[in-house]
Write a structure and sequence with these properties.
This protein has 15 helices and 23 strands. With about 500 residues, the chain is α+β, with helices and mostly antiparallel strands. The strands form seven sheets. It has a six-stranded mixed β-sheet with strand order 15-14-18-19-21-20, with helices on one face. A hairpin with a 2-residue loop joins β9 and β10. The longest helix has 18 residues.
Amino acid sequence: MPVDMTLEQLHSLLKELCKLPAETEWVEFKRNADIEKLGEYISALANSAALLGKQAAYLVYGVDDLTHEIVGTNFKPAQQKYKQQEIENWLLQKLSPKTYFHFYDFLAGPEDNIPVVILEIQPASHQPIQFDGVEFIRSGSYKKKLKDFPQKERELWRIFDSIPFEQQLAATNLTADKVLQLLEYPAYFDLTGLPLPDNRSGILDALVSDRLLEPAAGGHWNITNLGAILFARQLQAFQHLARKAVRLILYKGNSRIETIREIEGNKGYAIEFEWLIDYLKNILPANEEIAKALRKEVPAYPVLAIRELVANAIIHQDFSITGTGPMIEVFASRMEITNPGVPLVDTKRFLDSPPRSRNEALASFMRRINICEERGSGIDKVVFQTELYQLPAPVFEVTEQHTRCILFSYKSFMDMDKEERVRACYLHCCLKYVNREPMNNPSLRERFNIEAKNKSMVTRVINDTLDSQLIKIYDPTAGMKARRYIPFWG
């Protein structure tokens, strides 16, 4: 349960509110309560506070609305009932979506003997607050139906829509103790390299500075989605994030018919990422020799490529798609990494385009703690690593609601089909281009580990890729031996 403000805090708050020159759209003063209208005022004040960017709204009983003089009230919220119901229960049933409010009943005035009640109200966060199916708003000092003010309604929705997922709230109005129970805060200090404060206040301040946490009314705290998705001790403690844990499935063979093992994470991404990568390294097969450059036992898939693609799946997912999260599927000869949401960049331009992320705060924090590569270099490294390991080129594909990357285990040039060779040629050309090195026949021979005497095989691949209009000749006037190539978009 939230911890009440101290009497000193309440006196200070009352003093500040009474200093206001007049009633505002987020503060209402009344002598006594009209119980039937109480829910409408909560709706109006919660919506107006959101519109104005306030951390709380207040309905103050026992203060004159003109002079702001403390005059006292006979309103006793703990004793008050409406149609045989306690008013808090009645209000909670009628308010939608559920919003936090709290009555503070105390004595104030010059001699601290005048009864005052402050109703503290949390602002609306994702949609307007309704009371009994109707949304209200404040216009000046008046309570009105929101539908009668279409401009305010549009602005309110714009505010809700502009709040990125990371800054939306995963849990609200928590005590400090509850926050520290829900978040693996020592991991935050460990990963960021910051010293662990020796007091609770220092810990909370650090989490607030990185927007993992935000202060709420009455000395309480809100955990943001960013804080929960990165540092939750258990994602299941946050209902809307429970299905966002990374799933890992190991199959027998190359189909999904028989599952060997399935693991679903239950911690925040920052906590669990390294464990997940280490687990993958342990279950993946190894090859003793893939190419001349690699004469020792190496993983079947480059670890750097796996790290980058798993991080991408986490960072670029669309959190608005419910019931699904990042998934890693391991088959006998391929690995598929899938995330909810279609990409914001054409898959053919993954390698050269700076990434556009729906979740920039999440992406920035994961780069900061070295979970993924710097901006713009990740997919370059994935392609480079697959070439170094002499693997088929990765596939990037899009379904109706998901993005999938597929890594393939080693396959010789002779075993690759035409499509695989063309895809490898295109990505090699892209990689060369972003490194300011146009592709040529020798560079592609090296990529496929083909000797010079067999250069005609590579020429055929280049011609097939030209026919696919994925690459073009850099200088059409150059002779065949000097010919170089760039991507179609170059």
